[in-house]
């Protein structure tokens, strides 16, 4: 990891921060009239830069690869899980040197009068490191942001998690005791009550993720928190919303920029599309139905946009005869099966792409066409902690542990919250959809939920029920591949191996690989040999 002293980091923030922020929000110029008058006035810029750089770096290689591993989408570069020790070099350095360094600068440089900033920075730092543990397993933590330590050692994931729980508590205490205003907060606009909900929800998630191992009393901790002040509605969701500007500074959602500029590096995965269509699609690999449902997902048109009708005028293979072993699910939904070697870069104008949610694109209104940069608003979001996640995690815990609650009722609530979020997002970003035949209707949502309930009640084993909960959770997570990857490794579901296995059956990566640049330049890691197939601590009983 490249080392940066905090004196250097703080000095460059004011120079580069405003330029970066202009490319990420349309109203940040209201933060300060004169950002050079004092260190105190630098806090809003530092906080905003940390938030933007955190989300932008997570949405790059980490989210792309995690989403590919969890069957949201497909990339040619990693279709058979070909990650190597150079795959994450840039994102690894960027996470430490940008969001984490800036958050630590707030913690080290703020005064007792800045408890609001410190509480937010502490919670953001805890969230960032929790994601890094989820992805890498073991990472430098206790010494990593200490300017007096040139070569930080790697720490075990369970030890980091234990400390993160303490840091979250401290962050909540700081926010509760704070009195001054917080500016530069691009996520909650300085609303400390929402940050406290975020902290409680993050802690709840960490307890849920550690339910299978015994270093943390997860069930007790979860039960104590479930009635706390949590994220309970979409207005509380922990997410960053991008802007709609393209010039002179681009501030649209990165996936909108990538896909609506025809620069896409990945396709939609056939497993996901089949589980949204629910039309009886048969896996060309197993000969089995890919989805257990029979009702089309109302989110389909909001999640995906078709660029070609039917078989694209003969330009792509059809599904005549039932099976779709390569590429096309049918009716214009051109994607790929994981491991499929047949994708070509010139298919960008043919493949199904992102819709309105979560990238700010278009709702599919049965008028397929090649998308352009001017289509949609680009005002997408990266949902990191949401109200529907709380319900899905509670459903999982109620099914698998001694946690109170009816798993099916909680699952029903979770799906309903996801549907509501997607529908409202579509109405906000594409108002013309409201009242049209393509708007998500209450009747369609009710029919879908009833179908899931029927399938859940028809199952007999806990494992079958868990598969349904986690499959529905994954579909609700559309756009956040990191959480989907974590869920799959923790629970083993959705059951990809049974419904749509990866072509060639390569070994499944249980964690990201710490880059060789870190291993070779940090003497403290000379004896550390990361194994990408070793499960992260929370997936081991």
Automatic annotation (TrEMBL):
Identify the keywords attached in UniProt to this record, alphabetized.
Signal
**Which species expresses this protein natively?**
Cyclobacterium xiamenense
Keyword Lipid metabolism among UniProt keywords: no
Query: What does UniProt give as the signal peptide span?
Result: 1-25
Tell me where the transmembrane regions lie. none
- Which protein, by its recorded name, is this? Starch-binding associating with outer membrane
Task: State the source organism's domain of life.
Answer: Bacteria
**InterPro entries, sorted:** SusD-like_2 (IPR041662), TPR-like_helical_dom_sf (IPR011990)
